[in-house]
Specification:
Length: about 250
């Protein structure tokens, strides 16, 4: 092969590598997070996954951590940002506790807030210098249909509602830096978290699906599609929005 042809191939490869975005995704080992990972990898960008358990076939960079350990989380984030820039963040990790008012465990309330909100703040603050330096960035927070008023969800829904407030605040604060901040609020989705509370064919699921216009559970791929759209270069005029990927569940709220 002629030398100049080799040089062209090398240069094209390097240009492609330089143009690839590094996307940090929490809760990346399964469910919605893993669907986002696969979508990011398919576009040629580089997924950086964080979760408690490492999957066998992750198509990118992966780090294990228990988000309940704030110091360990900080150490992992330090390693990630030291290894290269971070162009986008998907705060997909979620932790759920439920309870009806009058019987809510206050420890559950604080634990749920810490893991859903503190974790998201910690991740964004670690990645933010990279985005500010590059004058470009995407942040997508994954919230929930339950913020619209689903019964027995106070700890979880209140934490996710706080994350929606963060979405609007950060969007306003970071707009001038070229960074967009949005949220995707899924309805019932085929994940382990959902199935723990609503087994297939259960009365609980049947009751819940009556409030969903499409009368079915969503798939992780469908939620990842909405998230992926907000990560796109052409999504630069969308910020501060809550995209409700909920099968029409919010219509009935």
């Amino acid at each position: 092969m002629p030398r100049h042809t080799v040089d062209v191939i090398i240069n094209e490869y390097l240009e492609g590598a330089m143009s690839s975005k590094r996307v940090l995704i929490t809760g990346a080992s399964k469910g919605i997070g893993r669907a986002v990972v696969d979508r990011v990898a398919a576009t040629g960008d580089i997924p950086i996954g964080i979760a408690r358990t490492r999957p066998d076939d992750f198509p990118g960079e992966f780090h294990t951590v228990d988000f309940a350990d704030r110091a360990a989380t900080a150490a992992v984030l330090d390693r990630i940002v030291a290894s290269g820039r971070v162009d986008a963040v998907v705060n997909n990790f979620g932790f759920a506790r439920f309870g009806r008012i009058g019987a809510i465990d206050l420890d559950h309330l604080s634990e749920t807030y810490d893991l859903n909100v503190r974790t998201a703040v910690q991740v964004v603050q670690a990645a933010l210098p990279s985005m500010l330096a590059g004058g470009w960035g995407r942040i997508v927070n994954v919230t929930s249909l339950t913020t619209m008023g689903t019964a027995e969800r106070t700890p979880y829904a209140a934490a996710k509602a706080a994350l929606e407030a963060c979405t609007r605040i950060w969007a306003n604060e970071l707009a001038s830096a070229g960074i967009t901040v949005n949220a995707v609020a899924p309805g019932p989705t085929e994940t382990e978290m959902y199935r723990e509370r609503s087994p297939i064919g259960s009365d609980r699921e049947a009751c819940f699906l009556k409030t969903i216009a499409l009368q079915r559970v969503g798939t992780p791929r469908e939620i990842a599609h909405a998230i992926g759209a907000l990560l796109d270069e052409d999504a630069g005029y969308i910020t501060g929005q809550i995209i409700r990927a909920d099968g029409g569940g919010s219509i009935a709220q």
